[in-house]
Design brief:
mainly beta, Immunoglobulin-like, 3-stranded antiparallel β-sheet, 8 strands, about 5% helix, elongated
Length: about 100
């Protein structure tokens, strides 16, 4: 995870746009239609910002670089966290491999 404060992004002169960068990796054996991420910004252990991001789809073994702009003034952050959220118990979230058992090609 990388957080770039608005003063260093060069994205805008009128609006404070920070930038969050991370790489999402699917190290599981399953591919997913949608992977949701909850992005949290912390100062001294307290959450000072929350946002979300969706990757559609995220295939098994693949990784995807994510860059998102985030308006506001946050000051010095102590931690940035991206928490993936996938309902892996819901069969509709999993992309079935073609030609698998009982599946049409």
């Amino acid at each position: 995870m990388k957080f770039t404060p608005a003063a260093q992004t060069g994205l805008s002169d009128r609006i404070s746009l920070n930038q969050v960068d991370f790489t999402a990796e699917n190290r599981s054996a399953y591919s997913y239609w949608d992977v949701y991420f909850v992005i949290l910004l912390y100062q001294r252990g307290a959450i000072v910002g929350a946002n979300h991001y969706t990757i559609s789809p995220l295939m098994s073994g693949e990784s995807e670089a994510v860059t998102m702009s985030w308006p506001g003034q946050f000051g010095l952050l102590s931690q940035v966290e991206a928490i993936p959220a996938v309902d892996y118990l819901d069969e509709k979230t999993i992309i079935r491999p073609e030609g698998g058992s009982g599946m049409a090609k």
